[in-house]
Amino acid sequence: MAGAAQTVSLPLPAHVPVERFSVLDFLRKELAPFPGRAIATFRVVVEAAVVLALCMALQIPDPHLSVWIVTRVAMEDSSQSLLAGVLVLVALTIGIAVALILMTFAMDQPWLRFCLMAALAGLAFFLRQAFVVGFFGFVIGLIATLIMTVPDFIPIPELAVRASLWLWPVFGIGIAAAVAGNLLIAPTNPETLLRDEIETRMRAAEDVLARRRDGRREPSTAARLAEAGITRLLMLLKSAEIAHPSLKTRHSQQSALITLVDRLVSGAALLELLPGTAPHAEERERLQRLAESCAAVRHALADGRTLEPGQPGIEPLPPLRGASTLAPVLSELEHVVDLIRQALGPEGASADAAAPPRVGLFVADAFTNPEYVRYALKGTLAVMICYVLQNAVDWPGIRTCLITCMIVGLANEGATIQKGTLRVTGAVVGAALGFAAIMFLIPGMESITSLTLLVAAGSAVAAWVVLGSPRIAYAGVQLAFAFYVCVIQGWEPTWHFDTIRDRLVGIFLGNAIITLVFHYVWPVRASAAMWTSFGSALRTMARLTTISGNDERAPVATDGLRQQVTRQFATAQQLADQAAFELGDSGGEGRVARERLQQAAADAQSVFLTQLAIAHEWPPPAASALPDTLAAELRRFDADVANSLDVIAERSERTANRVMPNLRAALAAVTAVTDVSLPGVESSEVAAHVEGRLALYRELVPRIERVALDFGA
């Protein structure tokens, strides 16, 4: 038994080095240019300038909101901007209608309006979690809640209704300009972006195959692409179908291609993890043919060609006899490439690809998960505390405290503080820029042209930040809002500082209240949730181990579990980033825990890739082709692996401390049974399959033990 098999940990691409944090290095990385960022920023600048000119010419109220919504809807992908704009307009319409209907009964009844506002705020928080498109439900509740506060500073019913109705054209003109600009100014084609993403994955797999063939060990992008999953690809497919409705007829083909390419790059990533022994002559031939076939597929994608079944391609070679870890992985890759060729053929989709799940309006546990109700209740409590304080001091200018509570209040404490930090940072920077503009520039302005140039300059700064990663993007949104509030205070040059003062006080107050409420009322710590997500990923991996390769639904089930594991690992990493903002980590224990999670997730990823190679072995032998004793021992070993992963999951969550099965003893047992039973197997193909599976088991066991060591097992 090769118990001392070489193991290599797959590093998480999103892992941030644990050296001392540097603000300058962080900003340098987040603000660095990337393809498409400059042209997207230019689009936002043009759109903001056009909206400002229209608002000034038509004297539309609150022009700063019209210009600001441009940065909120702006995205790199034109189709995503269109979808976001439509969703915001529909949500805005529903929110205004609901609020005005309720206002007919509650306009002159403060107690009733107070109760309705609390109910609407709670609805907004609940729908944010329970809706499949949480943003849509949240905007409905947010708009309705804010309109219910209008009578506090506009007590005349007719004027209150008029101000509420003006919200639609105020936001509508900005949304329309943003969508039109994205569709007309250097529009991005999501179909092209999707093809580029697929070609990138094909090229990464091709490079890994070529390096393995030549015996070279060099870093590649295959591991990062495998860990990224298919979320972005599916989003681009949805956007492409919006931009080009004719693509909907090829949805099954494109979905199958996305799934299979991700499966290919996962197999290529595993090749990098396997011991760096020189391949045999036959293995080198198979690696060469695989690389050539990947190149052929990539060129077909670039040229938009179909691959006919009769076109030269890969004819899978029988696996080598002998316990080579490369043999089963190569068989899997050959099978996947063949399926990709089928997906690119005239008949379209492959039978092995998982069909996209049907989704409804609400998430699966919308009405059974008590966390959603708790989240809505504590969010409502924070909003109503802000509302009471605002009215107690008779300071309607700080009503941004309500908006801050609703926008910043997220599912856990770390995420809430992280978004609050971005909101405060963006507001302070935007206010500083606006203050400087009022002091030195606005007094000398005499025309709309000069104001437009000033707004364009501020929009360029804000848009560049907005188009960055999620770790900094929201700061750009707040930077834009604070800057526009300063420099666009009506239809003529003004230099009042009280508006931005009130907005900043409201933001600081809202951040303080939502942080305290989420810290003490039903607290949900990202530092605890990250281990829950990590444990869920391990349990899903345990389920993956028990899938039978002889079940005709196994390929679909395997792909579904693979996507689920990828999402759970990504969630754990995101929660680890959010945990860094939580209160009460003066001793540095949180930083140590986050580092431990990143290392454990890296080790678990290498286990996961090895599992995928085992689950996707091709062709699977018929159950009747294996001796009963050997088949039973293989099932017993798989059960021990699943049990081990469950035990590690429990230890990571600190819910139990069961004894972990002795996988080395189980591996020795299955090896002994194989040595006895294999000579009696008549099919050389089945015998080679078993030997290849056993070789992967020898890789799997030390990888699982390495994960267990991360938790003292």
Observed structural traits:
713 residues; mainly alpha; Methane Monooxygenase Hydroxylase, Chain G, domain 1; elongated
Order of helices and strands: HHHHHHHHHHHHHHHHHHHHHHHHH
The percent of residues in helical segments reads: 55-70%
Radius of gyration: 29 Å
- How confident is the prediction overall: mean pLDDT? 83
- Beta-strand percentage? under 5%
Query: What characterizes the major β-sheet?
Result: none
End-to-end Cα distance: 22 Å
What does this structure look like?
The protein has 713 residues and is mainly alpha-helical. Among the domains are: 303 residues, no CATH class; 184 residues, Methane Monooxygenase Hydroxylase, Chain G, domain 1 (Up-down Bundle). The protein is 70% helix and 0% strand. The protein contains 25 helices and no strands. α20 runs antiparallel to α23 and α23 runs parallel beside α25. It is elongated and about 95 Å long. The two termini are 22 Å apart. The N terminus is likely disordered.
